[in-house]
Amino acid sequence: MADIRLEGVGHSYDGGRTWALRPMTWTWRSSRAYALLGPSGCGKTTLLNIISGLITPTEGRVLLGDRDVTGVPTAGRNIAQVFQFPVLYGDMTVYDNLAFPLRNRKYPRDEIDRRVRQVSELLGLDAHLRTRSRRLDPGRQQIVCLGRGLVRPDVAAVLLDEPLTVVDPALKWTLRSKLKEIHRDTGHTLIYVTHDQTEALTFADEVVVLKDGAIVQAGEPGELFLSPAHEFVGHFIGSPGMNVLPASVRDGVVRVGEVAVGRATGDLPPGPVNVGVRPEFVRVGAAPSLPGIEARVTAVDRMGPYELVRARVHDRDVLAKVESGSGHRPGEVVYLGFDRAYLFRDSVRRAALARLGPGTAGGGADRPPDAGRTGPPGAPGTAGPGGAAGPGGAGHGRGGPGEAGPGSTGSTGSAGPAAGPGGGGSGA
Ligand SMILES: Nc1ncnc2c1ncn2[C@@H]1O[C@H](COP(=O)(O)OP(=O)(O)OP(=O)(O)O)[C@@H](O)[C@H]1O
Ligand SMILES: [Mg+2]
């Protein structure tokens, strides 16, 4: 199996007037499970179709290992693709549909039978093997499509384009974990397109976030949660998303209004910034503390295991996830502190917010205070700080927080995400 490398790949559907996919250089590493996450229209399907060969990109080269496949049609690429809606031979039985990709490639009969039964058992299709596929409901038909995508042992990659859209929600969970199991078994490279963050975070080794045709960040789920490199990632991942407070930096000191809230790590030129802090990392105190922003509680939502405190700062709401039974009440004056916050300029992370005072002022701390603490209330399962990735990600030699710019968070070592204001260009 080989890496899939996109070199300067970009695509325009309108003769170059607009990019559906901005020129990017990016490597999908062999045997990894990727989620490709982004809102509708950001270019996810375009990207998959370029990899599978359904689209020839306007610019750039597609490489499977060392082989340039840019002009090679789908059939010559050894890539399986599962679409959003079922594409099956309705008159064929489920068994024959599953066997089709293998028969097509002249696999021996007993090997075909073995593979079909294996996949069928994993996906719970055994009772339907002799049924004509058009007699199945759409959800079940889609599971057969999944099976067809997974049945070939020899593929370089399996591309799944929102494959569970028509599947019953209860079944989705089961199927996702089956997919993970199959991935562990086969070691195929998987690229799983979704616009659902939960799906992406639970499924993938690495999540690639696409916005307006460019990769804005890629990393392990925990890393995207803890260290968003772009405001969009802060909003899109996490529930609720990251708080954003307009602020300014002068002489390294960050102020919200007149209140100094911390110090910028690194050399950030003076000017406006947005402080981004996840609700999980907002502390709500009853007494003034330094640094602390005075705020007025406007609502407290009881969410079961945690409470969501909404507090007004100037004309902005800041949400804080706190342990249930906090006793906070609407109308109360509170002081907010930030345990892990970043500074964004032009939507891109430029620095971390470090604490004012002797502990950090001259200490060269380029990670936020309390960066190593674990388990804020209500942090999402795999995305929480208790998860695999610590600051800077695990084992990929990525830049830690404060080293700014999506370009420095490049996931594969060989390719930085094409991001930043203005889009294109690798590792911009
Ligand atoms: N065949 C086409 N002709 C012209 N424009 C297209 C075509 N397919 C996609 N586009 C445009 O290219 C952009 C990216 O579309 P794409 O389908 O890749 O997005 P997507 O992320 O898959 O969206 P969704 O989540 O809705 O499936 C969009 O602006 C879309 O309108
Ligand atoms: Mg799509």
Number of helices: 8
Main sheet overview: 6 strands, mixed
Strand content: 25-35%
Could you estimate the helical fraction of the residues in percent?
10-25%
Annotated CATH architecture of the domain at 4-78 and 155-225: 3-Layer(aba) Sandwich
- String of helices and strands: EEEHEEEHHHEHEHEEHHEEEEEEEEEEE
* Structural class based on helices, strands and sheet pairing: alpha+beta
Bound molecules: adenosine-5'-triphosphate, magnesium ion
Describe the oligomeric state of these chains in a short phrase. single chain
> Measured on Cα atoms, how large is the radius of gyration?
24 Å
CATH superfamily of the domain at 4-78 and 155-225: P-loop containing nucleotide triphosphate hydrolases
N-to-C span = 29 Å
Which residue ranges are poorly predicted, with pLDDT under 50 across at least 5 consecutive positions? 359-428
Question: What topology does this entry show?
Answer:
Elements: E1 4-11, E2 21-28, E3 33-37, H1 44-52, E4 59-64, E5 67-68, E6 79-82, H2 94-104, H3 109-123, H4 138-150, E7 157-161, H5 169-186, E8 189-194, H6 197-203, E9 206-211, E10 214-219, H7 221-226, H8 231-236, E11 243-250, E12 253-256, E13 259-264, E14 271-277, E15 282-285, E16 293-302, E17 306-313, E18 316-323, E19 333-338, E20 341-345, E21 348-354
Adenosine-5'-triphosphate is lined by residues 13, 20, 38, 40-46, 195.
GO molecular function: ABC-type ferric iron transporter activity; ATP binding; ATP hydrolysis activity
Biased composition (Gly residues): 381-410, 419-428
Protein name: ABC transporter ATP-binding protein
